[in-house]
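[Automated response] Your request has been received and processed.

Submitted sequence:
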Amino acid sequence: MSGFLRLARLDRLFIVAMRVARWKGWGNAVEDVTRRVIFYLPRFDPFPLRRYRELYRAEAQRQAALAGYQISQLLPDPALGADWVVDYVFEGHRTFAAFVVLGWSDLVKQAMSAGILRTYLALFQTLWIYIYSRAFFDLVQMRKGPVIAALYPVVMLLGQLFIALFTAWLVSLNFSNFWLSVLFVSFVFIAVLRGFKALDRIFFAYYLMQDFAFSAQLRGAYPASLQQRIAAFNARIENALKENWDEILVVGHSSGAHIAISALAQIERSAALDEAQANVGFLSLGQVIPVVAFLPNAGQLRRDLYDISRSTSIYWVDITAPGDGCSFSLCDPVAVSALPLAGQTGPLVLSAAFSQALSRTRWRRLRWRFFKLHFQYLCAFDETRHYDYFEITAGPISLRKRFCNRKPSKQVQKIAYNRYREIA
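Generated structure:
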């Protein structure tokens, strides 16, 4: 045990030494940020922004203790429109970062308010859309892991339906009167299904089913309510371009990544970036872009994806991890969506390398907790050589300078699997 502790201390000293070397100018990165605004787009999540604020506070302190820098979370600043503010200090260099959560939890809650019947109708509709369009088979051919994860709520809900039917059938055997049997069987059938729905905080079947159904309901096209929200996100980011920031960083996690792409694409197509003084970066984490981009009516997303991939003003880094079974890890979303690659500038596809960046104990504990791993991008790591969310969002180096000399991961998938290639 003492040998392990010595190795751990040496590893920490090495990490700190490398940071000092980089910030002293011995590496390629030089401090270029003292003021940063971060726009965070969460995944399909009904929880309020305070969940993300508290997650950042707790994990930032944990990462700072491991990595050797100081980071503190300050109270929200209404004047900036920030949901929380971060003060970062290392080697006398101080960075100020304002976080703005571009929330759409109200739309998620509305989708999740669907009852049992509507959820099962959404299940069969979503299955039909993906199978009939053959998008399901294209996704399976590309990456089996996230497709298996997508099938989990389908299997779980059908299993619950079978248990409810079987229980109702057993009850029916105890009645000789037909109408009395119908009455009690109906009561038991509904009660069992309601019981399962009440336990969804354990199974997550209804939640995940509504997640996939929300994206697929219009065969890949954005619902009008989400379209309006994307326009509002676009306006908020565009306003920040006129403010005094060294870097504007947009972070999209999971399904928030393709929403961020559509918001940024509107800015890319306007003249707003021409006079912007700030660096503009886009960090996509655990993206599931192909789930939508492979659908027949996703022409707008494919157009937005194409425009962002050719931007010289927006620097895009895409980080996933093979250990995250809920994301399309190390898949270039532009290439696999069969979009033209001529003139492509992004994304830079990198691995967060969960199995290497987490200690053996934490990796064993988290390896089969798929939903927890899908949020690991927003959490502390034991080893930050591959990826440090808190340095990226609060540190003194912009996304562009931090990663400009990094090469893509060797295992990046670039084969075009998407059969639908039309863009809006």
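Summary generated for your ticket: Residues 134 and 419 are 9 Å apart (CA to CA). The chain has a mean pLDDT of 91.
If you did not submit this request, please reply to this message.
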